[in-house]
Specification:
By secondary structure, the protein is an alpha/beta fold. It has a single domain, classed as Response regulator (Rossmann fold). It contains 6 helices and 5 strands. Strands 2-1-3-4-5 form a 5-stranded parallel sheet, with helices on both faces. Strand 3, helix 4 and strand 4 form a beta-alpha-beta unit. Helix 3 packs parallel to helix 4.
Length: about 130
């Protein structure tokens, strides 16, 4: 079965302050059949979780107001959303940043620039794990 069939209807929240990253993610995810909502910063992303009820979240590490680490910590500490997969998106690829993300409960760490396959494979790995 193709990735597009598997991902049809998967709800993805992408939190990134870069319009270019949001646009790239939009193209890849929508073509794969995902429903996508965007947050331009951490507060915007957190505000959209209760109504949108995403199957997973991609969150940029470096955002204004509330960074990706803080968003991850809030999600993972919330009783209702702690099972929601959080995938960190970042250009910072070093052992300290990866360890910090893991300590806060991030499920995966995806470096930018990401490819279509790396993004869709991450969605396929985590999309159906979160409790409804």
């Amino acid at each position: 079965m193709s990735t597009e069939k598997i991902l049809s209807g998967v709800k993805v929240l992408v939190a990134d302050d870069s319009n270019t990253i949001r646009r790239s993610a939009d193209i890849f995810l929508r073509k794969a059949g995902c429903e996508v909502v965007y947050g331009e910063d951490g507060f915007d992303a957190l505000a959209k979780i209760p109504d949108f009820k995403p199957d997973l979240i991609f969150v940029d590490v470096m955002m204004p107001k509330l960074d990706g680490y803080q968003v991850c910590a809030v999600v993972k500490q919330h009783p209702r959303f702690r099972a929601l997969p959080v995938i960190m998106l970042t250009s910072k690829d070093n052992v300290f940043d990866r360890a910090r993300a893991k300590l806060l409960g991030a499920d995966e760490y995806l470096t930018k620039p990401f490819t279509r396959d790396s993004l869709l494979n991450a969605v396929a790995r985590y999309a159906f794990r979160a409790a409804p």
